[in-house]
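Troubleshooting: if your tokenizer reports a length mismatch, compare your output against this known-good record of 93 residues.
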Amino acid sequence: MSFLITMSQKELHRLEVIQKIHDRRLNVVQGAGVLGISRSQMHRLLKAYETDGTPGLVSKKRQQPSNRRHSEDLRNAVLDLVRERYVLVFTRN
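Known-good structure output:
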């Protein structure tokens, strides 16, 4: 079974460092220094990698709406006001 994982550059860099730690080319403290995170955060990432593999390093917040997101009703009300009060004119230069 194959599936596609979308990772950011930061997550790919984390994967490279974690693989180096796994291959014993880096220790945990060195890996944490490379990534600019604490030793305890590095251990959390290693545990996630060992438990879930590569998908364990992908942000869990991705694909979720922001906590600061306004309701769809408010968004539509604002768009209606803009359409009523402003005329958008596009010109070519």
